[in-house]
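Write out the bound-state structure for zinc ion.
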Amino acid sequence: MKKSIERIAGDTEGVSYEFPVYRIEGTSPDAPTAYLQAALHSCELPGTVAIHALMKRLRKAEAEGRIRGAMTIVPSANPIGSTQMLFGEMHGRFHFDTRRNFNRGFALLDEPDASPLSGSAKVTTADQELKDRLMQLSMGHDIVLDLHCAYEGVPYIYAHSVLWPAIADCASALRLEAILYSSDPGDGEFEVAAIHPYLKASPEVARLDRRVVATVEFRGMRDVDPELAEADAEGLYRLLVWRGVVSDEAIGPQEPYAGIAAPLENLEMMRSPCSGTVLYHVKPGDRVEKGDLVATIVHSPGEPDGSADIRAPQSGYVLTRHMHRFTRRGGDLMKIIGDRRSATDVVVEE
Ligand SMILES: [Zn+2]
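---
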């Protein structure tokens, strides 16, 4: 295992950012390769500690000559976001300077060639340079996982429609509750950009059967503890073994995926019609029927009609909910995977 340091120049003199990259060579040139990164939204830490727990398994496998496919691993992908502390809290989702989401604006390349991203004389900013660097690091790997988390949620993934159902084994390995798939071009999310070069490629180049490209949502922001880190590391390791990146006879055979798989169009983005204190009546993982009371917004406390009821627009499965207990009008409350297409447009804010 080799460690190197990536450096990103800051946008003012005297400032630069660093993050470590770990590389492991594979013993079999034909084996699938893998790229893992965590905490692109730097305040989303379940993936970082899962990778930390995974590394000891990988070091052991490497010492025993069981790493077949090359791997590149970035446990903490966003050193810019990590510095963005405000009143004691890290704000790692948007770049303070440009206000851009760190998981938007990745370059959508038409071929698996990262050279357009480097060496040019273009004027850029630190957050865009970070995005280009991460895309360069991931390019060429068969398995590309971007580890995030929701505010509060079950474990689930986003992936491109072309990969479903071939990546059901990924969902099974990681013990996920749901897969949301879409062919929407999105807004330059890392995972969308990572699969984009292969969408129009010839089958010999695309090799979609051996490709896993996904945004993994490892539950909620506060679900950071030793047991979950070990369980998620075991899930990642299981996937690497099932896909042939690592060999390990102690890992059992592939198991069928029993969770939800739904198109992104089915997602109900529940928003609040008013500001107030939020009382949730359901939690992630709950099944709801159309018309069920899912939240109450107390907008005028003390008044006889001082609250508003929020009801499920259709039957489905509660995927996530916001961790805040105060909302503004229009604020996100929860995501429900409906049994059928949502009547409203989906704007995912992961
Ligand atoms: Zn995220």
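---
The first helix runs from residue 46 to 63.
Residues 47 and 78 are 13 Å apart (CA to CA).
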